[in-house]
Amino acid sequence: MSAPLAGAPLAGLRPVRRRSRRTRARRWGVDALGLLVFLVMIFPVYWMVATAFKPGGDIIANTPVWFPTHPTRSTGRTSGRPSGTA
Predict the structure, then answer these.
(1) Mean pLDDT per segment of 10 residues, for the chain of length 86 residues?
(2) Which terminus of the chain, N or C, has fewer Cβ atoms within 10 Å?
Protein backbone atom coordinates (compact mmCIF):
# COMPACT_ATOMS: atom_id res chain seq x y z
CA MET A 1 0.00 0.00 0.00
CA SER A 2 1.45 3.36 -0.93
CA ALA A 3 1.39 6.54 1.17
CA PRO A 4 -1.02 9.30 0.11
CA LEU A 5 0.40 12.06 -2.01
CA ALA A 6 1.31 15.31 -0.28
CA GLY A 7 -1.50 17.83 -0.60
CA ALA A 8 -4.07 15.26 -1.68
CA PRO A 9 -7.23 15.22 0.49
CA LEU A 10 -7.75 12.11 2.57
CA ALA A 11 -10.89 10.12 1.89
CA GLY A 12 -13.76 10.90 4.24
CA LEU A 13 -12.29 14.11 5.70
CA ARG A 14 -13.80 17.50 5.00
CA PRO A 15 -11.67 20.61 4.68
CA VAL A 16 -11.58 22.82 7.78
CA ARG A 17 -13.93 25.79 7.43
CA ARG A 18 -13.46 29.00 9.33
CA ARG A 19 -16.41 30.40 11.21
CA SER A 20 -17.95 33.53 9.82
CA ARG A 21 -18.04 36.79 11.75
CA ARG A 22 -21.78 36.43 12.21
CA THR A 23 -21.37 32.97 13.78
CA ARG A 24 -18.63 34.19 16.11
CA ALA A 25 -20.69 37.25 17.11
CA ARG A 26 -23.73 35.08 17.79
CA ARG A 27 -21.65 32.70 19.89
CA TRP A 28 -20.20 35.61 21.87
CA GLY A 29 -23.71 36.95 22.46
CA VAL A 30 -24.97 33.58 23.69
CA ASP A 31 -21.97 33.25 26.01
CA ALA A 32 -22.51 36.78 27.39
CA LEU A 33 -26.21 36.07 27.96
CA GLY A 34 -25.35 32.81 29.73
CA LEU A 35 -22.87 34.62 31.99
CA LEU A 36 -25.48 37.29 32.82
CA VAL A 37 -28.08 34.65 33.72
CA PHE A 38 -25.51 32.85 35.88
CA LEU A 39 -24.67 36.05 37.78
CA VAL A 40 -28.34 36.85 38.37
CA MET A 41 -28.98 33.32 39.66
CA ILE A 42 -25.91 33.14 41.94
CA PHE A 43 -26.27 36.64 43.47
CA PRO A 44 -28.92 35.68 46.08
CA VAL A 45 -26.70 32.83 47.28
CA TYR A 46 -23.75 35.21 47.61
CA TRP A 47 -25.93 37.74 49.46
CA MET A 48 -27.11 35.13 51.98
CA VAL A 49 -23.57 33.95 52.71
CA ALA A 50 -22.22 37.52 52.94
CA THR A 51 -25.08 38.55 55.25
CA ALA A 52 -24.34 35.64 57.56
CA PHE A 53 -20.96 37.22 58.32
CA LYS A 54 -22.10 40.86 58.67
CA PRO A 55 -22.66 42.58 62.02
CA GLY A 56 -26.25 43.63 62.72
CA GLY A 57 -25.68 47.28 61.82
CA ASP A 58 -24.45 46.36 58.34
CA ILE A 59 -27.45 44.12 57.72
CA ILE A 60 -30.05 46.84 58.31
CA ALA A 61 -28.05 49.76 56.86
CA ASN A 62 -29.77 51.92 54.23
CA THR A 63 -26.82 51.60 51.86
CA PRO A 64 -25.85 48.03 51.03
CA VAL A 65 -22.57 46.69 52.31
CA TRP A 66 -21.34 44.41 49.51
CA PHE A 67 -18.42 42.87 51.37
CA PRO A 68 -18.35 42.44 55.16
CA THR A 69 -15.57 44.68 56.49
CA HIS A 70 -15.44 43.03 59.92
CA PRO A 71 -16.74 39.46 59.49
CA THR A 72 -18.43 37.95 62.51
CA ARG A 73 -20.33 34.76 63.24
CA SER A 74 -22.46 36.26 66.02
CA THR A 75 -25.54 36.58 63.77
CA GLY A 76 -25.85 32.82 63.45
CA ARG A 77 -25.67 32.10 67.17
CA THR A 78 -29.05 33.61 67.94
CA SER A 79 -31.00 32.44 64.93
CA GLY A 80 -33.80 30.04 65.71
CA ARG A 81 -34.12 31.13 69.32
CA PRO A 82 -37.04 33.13 70.69
CA SER A 83 -36.44 36.84 71.26
CA GLY A 84 -34.99 37.83 74.59
CA THR A 85 -33.04 34.62 75.23
CA ALA A 86 -29.30 34.41 75.03
Answers:
(1) 60 76 90 98 94 86 84 65 58
(2) N
